[in-house]
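Quick one: structure tokens for this chain, please?
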Amino acid sequence: MNRKIKIPMTKEEAVSLKAGDLVYITGIVYTARDAAHKRMYESLEKGEPLPMEIAGEGIYYMGPSPAREGRPVGSAGPTTASRMDKYTPALLDLGLRVMIGKGKRSEQVVEAIQKNKAVYLAAIGGAGALLSQKIKKSEVIAYEDLGTEAVRRLEVEDFPAIVVIDSEGNNLYETAILRYRNEENTRY
């Protein structure tokens, strides 16, 4: 099913999304990759606040290339999400609602997604130049010293992604393989 969604997102909105849905995101999304996640996690361990309010928000695992003239960011393709898995359950427990990346997630992350009624979306790897056209504004809000890994606040409009893991733990990466195998077995 094709859906237009907004971030920040409520639990009820997240629960309405199902693995396999194609979504078009409008709203605010933050970027954070490995180094930024590590710093945020260390801040939490010290009892310090995060650089942004996380409840209901979305994080896109992405570090953009330098922007061309007149554009807010350069190529903006997704980073492999499993690199953030160590830190993700703690952020989900704080209310993180949407994660955008590529690739599989650990069982701990899938359990935390279910527990917290969140969703994991996949952006299309290799399409960073096209995805960047859906980013209308970009502002570094934390960890500027990390360069492309700094936390950015992005304003996106109709940013395309696919629901890979829904709030019930349904995982498109697993169900699509089973469906393909079943279709292959019935062809011959």
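The first strand starts at residue 2 and ends at 7.
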